[in-house]
Design brief:
Layout lengths: L15 E12 L5 H18 L2 E7 L2 E8 L1 H12 L4 E14 L7 E4 L2 H14 L3 H16 L9
Parallel strand pairs: 2-5
Antiparallel strand pairs: 1-3, 1-4, 2-3
Helix pairs in contact: 3-4
Length: 155
């Protein structure tokens, strides 16, 4: 699996099949730091029983999340995310399943500023192929560039 010294190529003792889902989205009106704190606390509780780990980044009204876990559990979570009214313009940045160790063994949250999120979104736009994803990324970036950050979560 790794080609670095000290890692056996076929040593899968600590690895398991993990589904990975990485996305970004815009926060709906009324979603603020307090609401994001509630989301994190509820997620920590639920994700322990579902064996889901990851990172949620929230800044300037934009979510960026990396989720990893058992395929069936991640699929259920993805369906839930797409039905969640607290965000929109959901863009899938990565979706894969592979046998590997977890990148984020604990659920954590990191807050970043708009400039950091802008770089992540611009990179995603550069590699996006789906026209709906491209349009959503352009809307998010356009809002970051032209609107007051206080209005970012509004439709």
């Amino acid at each position: 699996m790794f080609d670095e010294f000290g890692f056996a190529e076929n040593d899968d003792t600590a690895s398991s099949l993990l589904d990975t889902f990485v996305y970004c989205s815009r926060a709906a009106e009324g979603v603020d730091d307090v609401e994001v704190g509630r989301i994190i606390e509820l997620s920590k509780h639920r994700n322990v029983t579902r064996e889901i780990t990851g990172v949620l980044v929230f800044g300037s009204g934009v979510f960026f999340q990396w989720i990893e876990g058992p395929p069936a559990q991640v699929e259920t979570l993805i369906a839930s995310l797409h039905g969640d009214p607290r965000h929109y313009d959901i863009v899938t940045l990565d979706r894969s399943a592979e046998k590997r160790e977890r990148l984020y063994p604990d659920w954590e949250m990191e807050r970043v500023g708009a400039d950091d999120i802008r770089v992540v979104l611009q990179d995603a736009l550069g590699s996006a192929e789906d026209k709906n994803d491209i349009a959503a990324l352009r809307r998010i970036l356009g809002h970051l560039d032209t609107e007051s950050l206080a209005t970012l979560g509004r439709r």
